[in-house]
Amino acid sequence: MSLRMYDLAGADSAVRFSPYCWRAKMALAHKGLAVETIPWRFTEKDSIAFSGQERVPVLLDGENTVTDSWNIALYLDETYGDRPALFDSEAARAAGFFIKRWAELHLHPALVRLIVADIVDALDPVDGTYFRESREAALGMTLEDYCRARDDNLKALDVCLAPLRSSLKVTGFLGGLAPNCADYMVFGAFQWARCSSRGELLRPDDPVALWFGKLLALFEGLGAEAPRAFPA
Amino acid sequence: MSLRMYDLAGADSAVRFSPYCWRAKMALAHKGLAVETIPWRFTEKDSIAFSGQERVPVLLDGENTVTDSWNIALYLDETYGDRPALFDSEAARAAGFFIKRWAELHLHPALVRLIVADIVDALDPVDGTYFRESREAALGMTLEDYCRARDDNLKALDVCLAPLRSSLKVTGFLGGLAPNCADYMVFGAFQWARCSSRGELLRPDDPVALWFGKLLALFEGLGAEAPRAFPA
User: Fold this and answer.
1) CA–CA min distance B3, chain A (Å)
2) What superkingdom heads the lineage (chains A, B) (predicted)?
């Protein structure tokens, strides 16, 4: 058994910050599966063309190629059913899917306004140019303008996080007493910010920060030890 | 076994629209438990003072008094473990709690801007006066002013619903292939709007509307048959 995964890399190839790749790496670690990551950049679409799409993570497991962080989680639970479950029931998986979509549709946009200008600086120059041009075309403004009202953007993040904060205070993890894949779906967003941007987005005593700290420490500090583009 | 529940009633005592009471009624029906509801109004706090708090639902089960829609769900799964589970695992329950808090902190505020002026008209006059005065004091404006920008408020609801819409398209229910208590936590919000307000908030082909229609039909049309203050 030898698992390999294409993983978005920054200018420093040790810096890995894709929220989707972090979901997959945490899911693999939860299953106790070692993975060799292959640094990949936005402009290297040819190297993953064999997967039939243009995004990472791409997981290679023997003859199998699996793309998309959610599909990877389902694949791991199905293929490695004798290892700790990422979701312990169909209902947990369905609710986890809602949480994944909440993260992507509400949390990621709230975070991107706070970190996207930093991300450009964290990327390899060729990737940075591609990233800036494609995003600015989509937004219709410069990334700096998009990020300008930082105080307002921090307030919007605070509002966005209210349900997460409020539920973690009661349940500990989105998975309950222990983390499951629903936690990793949201962890990816904060690890994306941590590894690719300057400054802190959460107060240290925020229940979300406390939860994130526990997830960073999991799997012998897999998240905590990850190199950051702009170390604190 | 004889279950009774205090349930918020409108000017017409057959009209019941509390989102929290609807959660509890759907949870009871899911367990196959019959309940006798007792109409209750906001200004009748004395009649439920025995419960140690001032809100409905209040469930009476023999010697037991249980308040709060979430606590009622947990109580039912614990007490009636031989009946269909509201949550089939601890992880499903924890994720369901996040969904409950999302409904309360993001969905309810998006809905209330669209329905609160109607709610006053649906309430018993004494309750309506209490409700208007207490809410207007909290908001610092009239309810009509609060609801004024209906088109903007519909757009905000649409944005709020994006994760729900997107996940229901894939999973069918928040509980997966069949509804569970996570669905009822969100159902309450839409049934609140349906029973207390004028007009439609969702397009008929919206995946959220299709999901809501399936939930209305459950339990021999418990939700669908419920009297509305302003029938379509």
Assistant:
1) 27
2) Bacteria
Write down the pLDDT at residue A232. Answer: 80
B63 reaches A (C-beta below 8 A) = no
* Residues of B in Cβ contact (< 8 Å) with A99: 95, 98-99
pLDDT band at B232 (very low <50, low <70, confident <90, very high): confident
pLDDT in tens, A7-53: 999 999 999 999 999 999 999 999 999 999 999 999 999 999 999 99
Locate the chain B residue with the closest alpha carbon to A173: B94
CATH number of the domain that residue A162 is part of: 1.20.1050.10
Contacts of A197 (CB under 8 A, 6+ apart): A114, A115, A118, A119, A122, A229, A230
| Mean pLDDT within B192-214 | 97
Give dist(CA B125, CA A80) in Å, integer.
61
The reply to whether B74 touches chain A by the CB within 8 Å rule is no
What would the mean pLDDT of A169-177 be, rounded to a whole number?
97
Chain A residues closer than 8 Å to B175 by CB: 91, 94-95
CB proximity A4 to B under 8 Å = no
| A119 and A173 fall within a common domain | yes
